[in-house]
Design a protein that fits this description.
111 residues; alpha+beta; two-stranded antiparallel ribbon; 4 strands; 16% helix; elongated; binds protoporphyrin IX containing FE
């Protein structure tokens, strides 16, 4: 909530105005990354906000990084050749981050 009248990012705010931040926009600033919406694991590493920032930086970030590393490497080991069935999978509208309803893949040699 704005505590005082201010002009930020081309918007005028009065005291008491509610400000909603679009957290989906974090890490997707075209001024900082080339084609920020394109998934590219070869991007040079740079500061990101996926675990927040400052005083409330995610306390579980080390566990989350470990979990994700194990999950991704296990998937790649066991599901070599996996292909997306639909390149635009169905999402659940209006959920935080528009969560996936399902993500169908095919695995070679399996039905
Ligand atoms: C990929 C997984 C995760 C992501 C993307 C994530 C993301 C975040 C973000 C963005 C914040 C900051 C929220 C804010 O500023 O209000 C946060 C805070 C926090 N996270 Fe995570 N988190 C993850 C996993 C975990 C895990 C596994 C744990 C615990 C085992 C955890 C515990 C916490 C706690 C306790 C805070 C609050 C810290 C504070 O307010 O001082 N997180 N997380």
């Amino acid at each position: 909530m704005a505590r005082e009248a201010t002009d930020r990012f081309g918007v005028h705010l009065e005291p008491g105005d509610t400000v909603l931040l679009a957290r989906q926009a974090a890490n997707r600033d075209p001024a900082r990354s080339v084609e920020p919406d394109r998934f590219d694991v070869t991007r040079p590493e740079q500061r990101h906000y996926s675990f927040g920032w400052g005083a409330h930086f995610c306390l579980g970030n080390a566990l989350a990084r470990l979990d994700i590393g194990v999950a991704v490497s296990t998937f790649l080991e066991r599901c070599d050749g996996a292909q997306l069935v639909d390149s635009h999978p169905k999402r659940i509208p209006f959920t935080a981050d528009e969560q996936l309803e399902s993500l169908a893949i095919t695995l070679p040699g399996r039905r």
